[in-house]
Amino acid sequence: MKPVKEAHRASFFRRHPVLQRTLIIAGTLLVLLLGAMVMADSVIKNPDQATAFSKWMEQAKYGWLMWRLTIYGALTWGFLKILRAPGFRSQYRQPLMRIAAVSVIFALVCELVLLSGTGAS
């Protein structure tokens, strides 16, 4: 006689993917909130160091601009690699272009705000 194999039930999160996604998002937001609280606490305890850091960021703004331009270049390269991939379907081209256009507009607005100095200081 062969032993009867028990049917394996799927894990709880495989049966409830929405719950898993919700818990992951809530956990991520909680970690970000705790990180922001730790940073705020350190700034409140050491205002001189926070002021020095702010001045350093202001002095190095063109270095940060070069860093951001490098990141934008890498994202553009990745976008073009996806667009020119052999298996890329034409039905995905228009949504990808919309995503790219919105991303470029958002990046331009952010850069203009940073370079104009109208942000909170």
Number of strands: 0
Q: How does the overall form come out from the CA principal axes?
A: flat
Largest sheet: none
How many structural domains can be distinguished in the coordinates?
2
Features:
121 residues, mainly alpha, 2 domains, 5 helices, 77% helix, flat
Structure commentary:
- The chain has 121 residues and is an all-alpha fold.
- The protein has two domains: 1-46; 60-121.
- It is 77% helix and 0% strand.
- It contains five helices and no strands.
- It has helices at 12-15, 17-45, 47-59, 61-83, 93-116.
- Helix 4 runs antiparallel to helix 5.
- It is flat, with a radius of gyration of 24 Å.
- It starts with 11 loop residues before the first helix and ends in a 5-residue tail after the last helix.
